[in-house]
Known about the structure:
heterodimer, A: mainly alpha, elongated, B: mainly alpha
Amino acid sequence: xxxxxxxxxxxxxxxxxxxxxxxxxxxxxxxxxxxxxxxxxxxxxxxxxxxxxxxxxxxxxxxxxxxxxxxxxxxxxxxxxxxxxxx
Amino acid sequence: xxxxxxxxxxxxxxxxxxxxxxxxxxxxxxxxxxxxxxxxxxxxxxxxxxxxxxxxxxxxxxxxxxxxxxxxxxxxxxxxxxxxxxxxxxxxxxxxxxxxxxxxxxxxxxxxxxxxxxxxxxxxxxxxxxxxxxxxxxxxxxxxxxxxxxxxxxxxxxxxxxxxxxxxxxxxxxxxxxxxxxxxxxxxxxxxxxxxxxxxxxxxxxxxxxxxxxxxxxxxxxxxxxxxxxxxxxxxxxxxxxxxxxxxxxxxxxxxxxxxxxxxxxxxxxxxxxxxxxxxxxxxxxxxxxxxxxxxxxxxxxxxxxxxxxxxxxxxxxxxxxxxxxxxxxxxxxxxxxxxxxxxxxxxxxxxxxxxxxxxxxxxxxxxxxxxxxxxxxxxxxxxxxxxxxxxxxxxxxxxxxxxxxxxxxxxxxxxxxxxxxxxxxxxxxxxxxxxxxxxxxxxxxxxxxx
Lengths: 87, 451
């Protein structure tokens, strides 16, 4: 079973590479030489290894976060009142 | 031959999940080099998926029940044009996740966690996981209830659903997973032909609803609750997380944004068509029957079987089962993706089960909890639905705020930040959500304020 799955996967991989070779010989391009660029452009990278800078919270964004905190507190209070009426 | 070997070696150097994605992207790369309308159509068909899937999964068991009850309470009127309005609402919100995913190659949970810190990251993840588990319970209620109309006991249907979902999530690579999910999703359209089985359907009344926007019984706390419930089923927090992660796992890039937008629009269109079909069916058949303003879904199905016949009723029940199943697949995937993104694990449906078991675990545990809880006798369905609504309504403005902040962040989005009209539309949607939630909150504290 595992062998079959591996065979199918390999077949799909082989089929794709064959198709690529055919397309490249028609167009005169070669992805193999441009592989790193392809990987980069297609985002085929482990993004867990690339750090993402934290956003600066200033201006209207700061105001938005305070609004969000107040909204959450108000909604939680309303929910508590609502649920206490159900029981 | 040598080229083939070299290319194979290059693919083998990639981690297994990325390697499988690379093979899919090679296919897209080859298709891009061909010209003509047919090749363009094939390319579009290869790139669509996340948008249609998220929108159809949004017509989940809870959604089908909500639309059915909306029709039976309010009939043909306000809620038909209201559903049409939901098309741009769903499109505007979900389209943003396509751009965000295609540009950053990171999921929504990861973006919140890394750009806005652990507190908001943990808040979003906890809300999502809680809301997802509760929503999954409603999906299993839909599945078991629908299966009962085919003579299958809840325990058998719950176990079968668990096996199907576990198999789909664990043993398929993204490409196959998406096509099998889309095939299941296609069954959601079953509600559309059912409209033609409605006896003496007044198409004039349907057309008139766009002119009059008539609210049967006027504005009341029940009306506000139903508006909020319909809005809640149109844009739910899990949808933002699901589509962005799905776009990332599929490997869409900035070049594919246009196709992603078409995908989202087509999905929104189908979602609205199905919702309107359900409202028309119950609005014509159930509305006006004694007690129609307070009917459960099995009572609604009973009325449908009396007025439309057994086969349409069974098809409706089948639609309910499908709605629950496709949403279970999508929601559990969104839990797995979000947990993987927050924890910094490899996160892809391409991962083999043994290698990526910790990625699949959160989603599968949540499905297992839902599948078990639903077997508890006399489960308080109303209370559960209310809790789902409440958690989602608290979380949705927060999730939307993060989405808007990220989409206006030039540092990460570059030229793909929101345009002015997109920001204005999104702010109107968030504003409407906050006002409706506020009004609902007030009706909870003062139940008779709107009569």
